Amino acid sequence: MQWRLLVHRLRYLLRTSGVIDALACSEASLSQANAALTEMNEKFALAHVQLLQSEKMASIGQLAAGVAHEINNPIGYIISNFGTLETYLEKLFTMLGVYEGAEQLIGSLDALTRLKATRIELEMDLLREDIPAIVAESREGLSRIKDIVLSLKDFARLDSIPAWHFDNIHKGIDSTLKVINNEIKFRAEVIKEYGNVRDIECVLPQLNQVFMNIIINAAHAMPENGGKIKIRTYEDGDDAVVEISDNGNGISESDLSRIFDPFFTTKPVGKGTGLGLSIAYGIINSHRGKIIVDSAIGTGTTFRITLPLRQPPIHSS
User: Fold this and answer.
1) How deeply is 82 buried, as exposed, middle or buried, from its count of CB atoms within 10 A (0-12, 13-18, 19+)?
2) Are residues 240 and 289 in contact, defined by beta-carbon separation less than 8 angstroms?
3) 3-class DSSP assignment, residue 116
4) Count of Cβ atoms closer than 10 Å to residue 37 Cβ
5) Sign of dihedral through CA atoms 230, 165, 310, 46?
6) What letter does residue 180 receive in the DSSP assignment?
7) Residues 286, 307: contact at Cβ < 8 Å?
């Protein structure tokens, strides 16, 4: 046996084995680095989408702030004028009552006949009943417009820079529902089951975006004859929980794992950007919260949002 040749071959095999191990190790490291880069790229893509959405919301906010300001001024003096008009009408009706009571005291038959005929022709009895109702209805309409404008300001917090504050999530949900009322009123009935939830530390305009995206998606998932959207809130330990449920079409199991991916949408081309839920996920994640979804085809969908009542010190305002 050629011992020197055997030793040489063994050394070669050992060196080769080491190279293979090193290559395997390098391959594993490269695979990990690639996965990390892929994850980082996805985060950058989501951050870019959120930045674009934030700029879009800021532009909309500036426009809405101007519109709200312009609408508030005329609404203010119209409501004031209606109050004055009501006072004047009360005085006119009082005087009219005096005239009607004095009809029997008028000696001239022609004058009495003319007064009665004019009263009948002008339908004074109907006007006395109808005018207060018209004024009250107009006042109610103006009050609704004022509430919508205030809700719009609350929705986007247009008069301040977004910052962390303790806010009431019920106020945020209510203002969101008023802003998107036209989008959902013919599609679904909204049922609110608010629990006793304390104010939470949050950026409420951002949470309003989350509520808006989920509720509008729920409304769009309704059958033609309409459905129900239930919004339930409660506290769970140190967290506030918001559950938004619908009895719409539901989400397939294959789509369920992708609904938070940027640009993924089940809507027809041109009907959705696929950004709403990915932005919602990013907002809830920035609030140190969780958002999960349960759904079944033909049964409906429930989004469960869990938010800490108080943020860690890094996010304190």
Assistant:
1) middle
2) no
3) helix
4) 10
5) positive
6) T
7) no
Of 104, 132, 155, the one marking the end of a domain is 155
CB atoms within 10 A of CB 172: 25
In angstroms, the CA 163 to CA 204 distance is 9
User: What region, left, alpha or beta, does residue 7 occupy, with left being phi > 0 and alpha being psi -120 to 50 degrees?
Assistant: alpha
CB 240 within 8 A of CB 307: yes
Residue whose token pair is 């003319």:
114
For residue 122, give the amino acid letter: L
User: Is 248 found in the same domain as 179?
Assistant: yes
Question: Three-class SS of residue 143?
Answer: helix
**Who contacts 178 (Cβ-Cβ below 8 Å, separation ≥6)?**
147, 148, 151, 152, 155
SS (H, E, C) 24-91: HHHHHHHHHHHHHHHHHHHHHHHHHHHHHHHHHHHHHHHHHHHHHHHHHHHHHHHHHHHHHHHHHHHH
Which DSSP letter does residue 223 get?
A: -
pLDDT digits (tens, 9 = 90+) for 52-110: 555 555 555 555 556 666 676 677 777 777 777 777 778 777 777 777 776 666 766 77
What number of residues does the chain have? 317
3-class DSSP state of 296: strand
The answer to whether position 125 is within a domain reads: yes
CA 145/CA 196 separation, integer angstroms: 29
pTM: 0.56
- Domain end residue (candidates: 155, 180, 210): 155
Radius of gyration from C-alpha coordinates of the chain: 34
